[in-house]
Amino acid sequence: MTDTFLSGRTALVTGSTSGIGLAIACSLAAAGARVAINGLGDEAQIQAALDAVREAGGGEVRHFDANLLDPEAIAKMMADIDGWSPVDVLVNNAGIQHAVPLAEMPVGKWDAIIAINLSAAFHTMRLAMPGMAVRGFGRVVNIASVHGLVASKDKAPYVASKHGIVGLSKVAALEYATAGSRDSGGVTVNCICPGWVETPLIEPQIEARRDGGGREDGVRALLAEKQPSLRMTLPGEIGAIAAWLCRREAHNVTGASFPVDGGWTAQ
Ligand code: NAD
């Protein structure tokens, strides 16, 4: 029998119309949660995401269409979700990337990457966490990156945003450390820091390394640069780790950042 330890809880996963976010939304639904999904996409993509999460199990599923570039749209989304069912589990996952040298980075890309990868998490957390504290249970899982722990060239705004979310998560973990109890599960804030995960986000970086060969050659070259296991992580594997962090018995796991990187940051 499936362990539905999130039954009766509500989760919001930002950027869950694709990739890692969609897989996390499915894992939380499989654990019994009611799930608010968010993210861009056409009607068909959003419907496919809703169907996938519904099929995974759990309670009701709805899409909330806030563009995370806009703090007012984020505030409206959080109020709408609160009216539906207050957020117990908040996964800040939405993220974008643009890889070029610092001096060539378009200013608009810097602003957008900081807004979506970092500031959006500040806004959802500031609006969701007081309610979690009152109820004595809350989980914030921020999807950072190995680039929250180490740098790579050509990724100035991405690395800055991911280091920023690691720091933001530590502050929030400290501020909410005493909320709730061991029995209620407490309020925790953690980061997952993946290396390479097989999703659309990294396709341009695979493409850039094909060197006249096929996609598999691009993947091999990408892994060989930094990920010692030479294996990609699957989105569902990140979903399983995110779900584990939401268990009651993880009440004292807070302020931590978990690399899932095949040894990348051990080097
Ligand atoms: P993805 O491109 O498949 O999905 C990104 C999601 O974010 C989509 O649902 C998209 O609609 C949403 N999004 C983008 N801009 C948005 C906006 N303005 N408003 C609302 N939603 C928006 O990417 P992914 O690989 O699944 O990445 C998810 C997270 O994981 C990101 O934060 C990324 O930095 C992080 N990450 C990915 C990898 C990897 O190898 N794929 C590695 C480390 C960290």
Question: Any overview of this molecule?
Answer:
The protein is α/β, with parallel strands linked by helices. The protein folds into 2 domains: 10-197 and 233-260, NAD(P)-binding Rossmann-like Domain (Rossmann fold, 3-Layer(aba) Sandwich); 202-232, no CATH class. 44% of the residues lie in helices and 14% in strands. The protein has helices at 19-30, 43-56, 71-84, 107-135, 156-175, 203-207, 215-226, 235-245, and strands at 10-13, 34-38, 61-64, 89-92, 137-143, 186-194, 257-260. Strands 3-2-1-4-5-6-7 form a 7-stranded parallel sheet, with helices on both faces. The protein is globular. The model has no long low-confidence stretch (mean pLDDT 97). It binds nicotinamide-adenine-dinucleotide. Residues 15-21, 38-41, 67-69, 93-96, 116-117, 143, 145, 194, 196-197, 199-202 line the site of nicotinamide-adenine-dinucleotide.
